[in-house]
Amino acid sequence: MSKLPKIALIGNPNAGKSSLFNSLTGLNQKTGNFPGVTMDKLTGIWELEPNRKVEVLDLPGIYSIYPKSIDEELVINILGNPAHADYPDMAIVVADASNLKRNLLLFSQVRDLGIPTVLALNMVDVAENQGYVINSIKLARELNIEVAEINAKKGIGVNGLRLAVEKTLKNRYASNDALPLPVGDDLLADITAQYGEADPYRSLLWLMEHDRMKMFSEEQRIGFDRLQEKHRFDAKSYKTSETVKRYEALSEIVERCVINLNRQWDAPPVKTMTDRLDSFFLHPVGGYLIFLGILFLMFQAVFTWAAYPMDAIDGGVAQLNDYLKEILPASALTGLLTDGLIAGIGGVLIFVPQIAFLFFFISMLEETGYMSRVMFIMDKLMRRFGLNGKSVVPLMSGVACAVPAIMSTRSIGSWKDRLITIMVTPLMSCSARLPIYTVLIALVVPEKSTLFGMFNLQGLALFGLYLLGFFMAILSAWVMKQLLQVKEKSYFIMELPTYKGPRFKHMALSIYNSVKAFVFEAGKIIVAISIVLWVLASYGPGDSLATVEQSVRQANPTLSASELANKVAAEKLEQSYAGHFGHFIEPVIKPLGYDWKIGIALITSFAAREVFVGTMSTIYSLGGEVDDENATIKNRMRAEINPVTGKPLYDAALGFSLLIFYAFAMQCMSTLATTYRETKSWKYPAIQFLYMTTLAYLSAFIVYQVLA
Amino acid sequence: MSGTLADLKVGEQAEIMGFTDELLSLKLLEMGCLPGTVIELTHQAPFGDPIAIKVSGYTLSMRKEEAATIQVKTK
After folding, report:
1. Which residues of B touch A497 (CB under 8 A)?
2. Among A53-62, A234-243, A266-275, A604-613, where is mean pLDDT lowest?
């Protein structure tokens, strides 16, 4: 197959790039994105005509080609390097027509890099509502390129864009005539001599941004620094003057191509919907209350609304298991299928409703533009703790999953703020903790109780755990701020986009993708560990398990048949390999109130915490109450008796101690791997693992000792 | 009257005259804060920081210390 032509989509954040990408490529995308993360490039296929396809590359939103943070670096690494595998044949710059001048700045830089470019004018209707009429034919002539008016959200104008793209792909005309701001010919000649032939503007980009471009070796970087010195070239002031110069030229063009109706009528500026909404959402007091209210609603929804589908799944899995046990011959294989596999899969499936609700809320906040308001009102507060208003997004996405959350820190410009955010984000309670919280809260918090007759106490307990995670995160951040005495300037110059109605199709797609990723990624681990665990729990060293039945029978001659069977099963588990592991670590976890069965769950949880519930299902279904009809994991754990006190094992002290342990402990390989990838050092994941686990152990110890 | 953007009150308009921090000025320029542009302070976050301004038809937020690097002239 011949290589498809490549088209890069470039534009300011919120210019409608992603909407255009979606309407061009439809479902032909390679996505696996979580809400809030478009940190990496996305590719998709656009069928220009039947049998004529092009590859479309969606790049992170930028304001200029000079990057200020890590997510923005990607763009010049591709556009500045013709040898790059993703170097495009042409670019479509998507411009927000209601803010034309600022959007054209980026356009002019991309065009000057020598890439054939088409300008896609988006949101022309918004501009017209504000009283600006754009003559796009004239604009095309002035800029000497093809211009297409589009409405990315509604998918209008794609045909015109297609024609513009076809034309540009054919003539490959790049209208980069001269440098925006002249430099000495000898400087350009030196760059050409040392680094090969290049477009003059691209040479300057190399000279100024070589540190952020991966294509250069250490030696080449030193060479660029020497050239800057030799020619007394000041990159900073060149960029500033270049920007001013470009704006001057663009102002004149915009002046000629845009008619401002406001000026003619001298109408007072209209208060837009965004202005009105901002007076609520950015209110000094009300803003916080609304944010808290939204968070609270989110958790009530996750706990109470999701309960109905969850109960159905829970009951369904238990019924299926009972049914299978009835019709299949009682054998080791049946045990593996029902208590190992199906119990494990059920442990994953049951949390799909809650995770879907979580992703629904987070993608809704992102989509509508509310998330950047949250950054705005939280910045001052977060700064006191060594974080940054932009840390709010990782922290909130951390509620869904720490892996994309840590990746989303790339938009934080300051290294120190970013590092601290990465280190504390896993303390936010992620969706994998939700299963554990749900089961344990149901055991220790009374079901029907309410506060003031309106708030479900279980919902409040869950909300409390999430708050606890958040407070521990910012407290840890504060400690790290004290330890990391780096003086580095961070800045917070950020656009507050206009509010938009959520695109439900877009949201549905992202919820579907996230849930799918959770079920398959987490599911694989859970099923694998369930099987391993079942084997370890069903077999023991030597013939120890074989002799168990006999010795139990001899020790308890008066028991009924079913009681005896339970006793045998419990004894067998204790003598199995898993039982040995559990007993091995029991001395360490005894002060936290845990027995060897919980010990088994703790060991398996260190790979990924979501296996806790599956492990518990496996252990308790093997260890007793086997003939309990419709035995859900909750009921099995509730029936567990503390051998010392004779009371239920899962009392408040143990329950809360376990809850705190799982809230703070670092039990996720994927997160540690992501921290390594984002910090490029093993030091930080190691510190992360140690400090979180220590924190978990000490806190759980205190909670148990106080409550017991 | 001249001063910096950090001195403005909510609802006040001013014209950008220049910048005192070279590092920040590039970012501010790219975001459309050009000398000669009229801006309006529209919001202050709780505790007075950060602030939001209206500039060339959109809303831009920045911290107070960043606003202090923008010299403005009020009418």
Report:
1. 58
2. A266-275
| CB–CB contact B61 A64 (8 Å) | no
Q: In a 10 Å sphere around its CB, with 0-12 CB exposed, 13-18 middle and 19+ buried, how is residue A436 labelled?
A: buried
Pairing mode of beta strands A52-58, A42-49: antiparallel
User: In angstroms, what separates the C-alpha of A376 from chain B's closest C-alpha?
Assistant: 7
CB contact under 8 A, A495 and B31: yes
The number of distinct structural domains making up chain B is 1
pLDDT digits (tens, 9 = 90+) for A245-286: 999 999 999 999 988 877 555 555 567 788 889 888 988 888
What's the pLDDT band for A34 if we cut at 50, 70, 90?
A: very low
pLDDT digits (tens, 9 = 90+) for A218-229: 999 999 999 999
Question: For residue range A144-155, what is the model confidence (pLDDT) as tens digits?
Answer: 899 999 988 787
CB A471 within 8 A of CB A387: no
CATH of domain A1-270: 3.40.50.300
Mutation for testing the B interface, residue in A245, A494, A499 having most B CBs under 10 Å: A494
Among candidate residues A239, A272, A229, A80, the one with its CA nearest the CA of residue B22? A239
CA distance A99 to A247: 13
Q: What is the pLDDT of residues A481-492, one digit of tens each?
A: 888 876 666 778
Q: In this complex, is the C-beta atom of B23 within 8 Å of any C-beta atom belonging to chain A?
A: yes
Higher pLDDT, A92 or A335: A92
Q: What is the pLDDT of residue A31?
A: 46
Domain of residue B48, residue span:
2-74
pLDDT of residue A459 exceeding 50: yes
Query: DSSP characters for A82-99?
Result: TTSTT--SEEEEEEEGGG
Does A496 contact B61 at a Cβ distance shorter than 8 Å? Answer: yes
Provide the 3-class DSSP secondary structure of residue A633. Answer: helix
How is A164-228 classified by DSSP, letter by letter? HHHHHHHH------S-SS---HHHHHHHHHHH----HHHHHHHHHHGGG-TTS-HHHHHHHHHHH
What CATH number is associated with residue B36?
A: 2.30.30.90
Distance CA A700, CA A420 (A): 24
Contact check, Cβ <8 Å, A496/B60: yes
Residues 6+ apart with CB under 8 A from A51: none
Task: Test B46 with A66 for CB contact under 8 angstroms.
Answer: no
Q: How confident is the model at residue A35 (pLDDT cuts 50, 70, 90)?
A: very low
Strand order across the A52-58 sheet: A42-49, A52-58, A6-11, A90-96, A117-122, A146-149
This model of the complex carries an ipTM of 0.93
Residues of B whose CB is below 8 A from A275: 42
Report pTM.
0.80
What pLDDT, on the 0 to 100 scale, is given for residue A653?
87
pLDDT of residue A708: 78
Say whether residue B62 is in contact with chain A using an 8 A CB cutoff. yes
What is the CA angle A84-A86-A91, rounded to 5?
115
Alpha-carbon distance A180 to nearest alpha carbon in chain B (angstroms): 15
**Residue of B22, B32, B62 with shortest CB distance to A240:** B22
Give span(s): CATH 3.40.50.300, chain A.
1-270
